[in-house]
Design brief:
Layout (H helix, E strand, L loop, with lengths): L4 H6 L5 H9 L16 H25 L8 H11 L1 H13 L1
């Protein structure tokens, strides 16, 4: 088995497909295998970045869902309805001032 991702990906080792995927994901071909062991700086940074990216992806999904009447909730739904029915917004403000 090779000592770099490139050599591992070219081998017939069971982990060769995983190494090829890491190269495709952006890891340099010359990445030493020791850099990917648990606790290494490279792996810790990659895991941290992945976690943050997943959180941002989830938040963007919520923003996307809030743009449609069928899936919007709370304040997002209120903004959408006010945009569709401007007269409704005026009435609601009027009644809020009186009530």
């Amino acid at each position: 088995m090779g000592r770099t991702l490139e050599r591992l990906a070219a081998s017939d080792h069971p982990a060769s497909l995983g190494a090829a995927d890491l190269i495709q994901a952006g890891y340099p071909h010359s990445t030493p295998l020791e850099a990917l062991t648990p606790g290494s700086v490279t792996r810790t940074l990659a895991e941290t970045f992945s976690r943050e990216l997943a959180e941002i992806h989830e938040q963007l999904g919520e923003v996307y869902e809030s743009a449609f009447l069928d899936t919007a909730t709370g304040e997002s739904l209120q903004v959408l309805v006010d945009g569709l029915c401007p007269r409704r917004a005026c009435w609601r403000r009027l009644f809020r001032l009186r009530g």
